[in-house]
């Protein structure tokens, strides 16, 4: 299933003339193009970092409570994989698109690697619905405080003994319990305070066009965002390497568009189309 990029221009023009939001929902595929291993792919980080566990068992609060050091070793390893990569052309296009659209732009991301921020997207218009590995919080939730990531992972190559060496600084400053990564685990729920759930749904209700980029639809809030946007008759654009959970509905929708290819190649073209549109039509 492949459609043409030309169809984007009228969809964007309609959105802007109706004064609705232009929203991008991004997932692991966008980061994969920078070299961050994906969660579920056959070359995924689960294979490399968690040989002895299934992801749905490992990345749970239940597992963390019993094996905090194991989870921290994995998270520190992941953090080194983020440190070693750079934002790609897709990230940079999204930062440029925000510059063009300002408050008409929203970015909802499942990625916890902060590559969107590093490319230049603003915190106020970027909702990290799965949290971020740049912050931690108390695993006993003794306060609402969110701390900066306490460990320096700048030493290379990553050494798992870093967790033992750093155990003291991984503790909560208030109660002394172990801190946890400020990321959503498989046995937890989305909320507004930590994961901007309501902001993301509010965005879906007010968006004129939703670009789904580098994500297969395997988690439930992204699915809810897409179905909410469809319910409000927004245009949905599916930008992925392969067909996925979103594709069949998007392909059948007269307002939908399916684009196959790398986000690092397609998003700069969308930026260019938008730039031309804003210059020519005074939107
Ligand atoms: Zn605490």
List the defining traits of the structure above:
283 residues; alpha/beta; Rossmann fold; SIR2/SIRT2 'Small Domain'; 2 domains; 6-stranded parallel sheet; 3-stranded antiparallel sheet; 14 helices; 9 strands; 42% helix; binds zinc ion
- Text of the CATH class of the largest domain: Alpha Beta
The count of DSSP E runs of length 2 or more, i.e. the number of strands, is: 9
Order of helices and strands: HEHHHHHHEHEEEHEHHEHEHEH
Please mark out the parts with pLDDT under 50 across 5 or more consecutive residues, or reply none.
Answer: none
- The backbone outline, from C-alpha atoms, is elongated
CATH topological fold name of the largest domain: Rossmann fold
> Which structural class fits the helix and strand makeup?
alpha/beta
What strand order characterises the main sheet? Answer: 3-2-1-7-8-9
Head-to-tail CA distance between termini? 31 Å
CATH architectural category of the largest domain: 3-Layer(aba) Sandwich
Outline the biggest β-sheet. 6 strands, parallel
Number of helices: 14
Using the CA coordinates, give the radius of gyration. 19 Å
Strand content: 15-25%
| Distinct ligand kinds | zinc ion
What is the count of structural domains?
2
Average residue-wise pLDDT = 89
Would you identify the CATH H-level superfamily of the largest domain? TPP-binding domain
Helix fraction bin? 40-55%
């Amino acid at each position: 299933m492949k459609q043409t990029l030309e169809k984007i221009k009228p969809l964007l023009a309609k959105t802007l003339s109706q004064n609705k939001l232009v929203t991008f929902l991004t997932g692991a595929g966008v980061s994969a193009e920078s070299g961050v291993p994906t969660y579920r792919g056959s070359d995924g980080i689960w294979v490399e970092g968690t040989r002895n566990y299934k992801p749905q068992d490992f990345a749970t609060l239940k597992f963390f409570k019993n094996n905090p050091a194991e989870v921290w070793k994995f998270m520190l390893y992941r953090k080194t994989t983020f440190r070693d990569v750079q934002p790609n052309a897709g990230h940079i296009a999204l930062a440029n698109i925000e510059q063009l659209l300002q408050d008409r732009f929203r970015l909802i991301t499942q990625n916890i690697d902060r590559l969107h921020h590093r490319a230049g997207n603003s915190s106020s218009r970027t909702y990290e619905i799965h949290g971020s590995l740049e912050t931690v919080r108390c695993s006993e939730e003794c306060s609402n405080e969110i701390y900066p990531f306490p460990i320096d992972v700048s030493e290379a190559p990553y050494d798992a003994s870093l967790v033992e060496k750093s155990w003291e600084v991984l503790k909560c400053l208030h109660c002394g319990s172990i801190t946890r990564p400020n990321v959503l685990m498989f046995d937890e729920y989305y909320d507004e305070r930590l994961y901007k759930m309501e902001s993301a749904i509010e965005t879906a209700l007010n968006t004129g066009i939703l670009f789904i980029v580098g994500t297969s639809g395997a988690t439930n809030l992204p699915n809810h965002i897409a179905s909410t946007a469809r319910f409000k008759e927004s245009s949905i654009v599916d930008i992925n390497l392969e067909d996925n959970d979103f594709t069949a509905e998007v392909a059948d929708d007269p307002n939908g568009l399916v684009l196959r290819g790398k986000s690092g190649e397609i998003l700069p073209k969308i930026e260019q189309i938008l730039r031309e549109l804003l210059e020519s039509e005074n939107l």
